[in-house]
Design a protein that fits this description.
- The protein has six helices and four strands, in the order βαββααβααα.
- It has one domain.
- The relative contact order is 0.14.
- By secondary structure, the chain is an alpha+beta fold.
- The chain is globular, with a radius of gyration of 16 Å.
- Strands 1, 2, 3 and 4 form a four-stranded mixed sheet that branches.
């Protein structure tokens, strides 16, 4: 039985574990970088230094300019400022919500989760 060749021009989750990562966003409109297509982006929790040049209030309000500064520092694959500027608004909102969620304390997240399941 022949094994289908993997298309190296599409960047998707490497495995099921990455796809199941709650911080991985499937883009509605994939990003094209040269001949490469990015379909999924994983966002990681930023360190304080990676928030330089923005304010927490701007990030909490999902300010587009603040997200354009921070997302290139915390996404895998790393999106450029220009690529972020060309994202579909729904995809930008989804990525921004991941960033906003990182700003919450664990107790606030637990409280929010409890209120949603009640």
């Amino acid at each position: 039985m022949a094994i289908p060749e993997k298309d190296s021009s599409v960047i998707a989750p490497a495995d099921e574990a990455q796809a199941a990562n709650p911080n991985t966003v499937e883009l509605d409109v994939p990003v094209t970088r040269g001949e490469t297509t990015i379909t999924h982006v994983t966002v990681r929790k930023p360190l304080s230094g990676e928030l330089r040049g923005t304010s927490l209030a701007e990030l909490a309000n999902l300010d587009v300019n603040a997200l354009r500064k921070v997302l290139p520092r915390i996404t895998t694959p790393s999106l450029t400022d220009i690529e972020i500027g060309r994202l579909d608004p729904a995809d930008l909102l989804d990525l921004g919500m991941k960033v906003g969620n990182f700003l919450l304390k664990k107790s606030a997240k637990a409280e929010m989760d409890a209120s949603l399941t009640a």
